[in-house]
């Protein structure tokens, strides 16, 4: 019986060792994905803040251009109502 118990103990020990190695691999992958996700979230927030605070100069330019265009090419008599 002693020999059978030794084999069972060895088998259990090997199973536990393999299980710990698998857990380490899963843990490493989980940490890498968490870090990549955190960096992506910070980048998205920084981009959103940048877009929010950057003035829109093109909008002002288009409004001025439309007013000048109408005044230069159309007189009061030519306008269609």
Short note summarizing the structure:
This protein has one domain (2-73). Helix content is 85%, strand content 0%.
How far apart the termini lie comes to 107 Å
Rg value? 35 Å
Determine the mean pLDDT: 76
Q: Helix/strand/pairing class, anyone?
A: mainly alpha
Number of self-contained structural domains: 1
Secondary structure tally, helices? 2
Shape: rod-shaped
Contiguous low-pLDDT stretches (5 residues minimum) are: none
Notes on the protein architecture:
The protein has 81 residues and is mainly α. It has one domain (2-73). It is 85% helix and 0% strand. The longest helix has 52 residues, at 2-53. The radius of gyration is 35 Å and the shape is rod-shaped.
Quickly list its features.
mainly alpha; 81 residues
Ordered list of secondary-structure elements with their pairings:
Layout lengths: L1 H52 L3 H17 L8
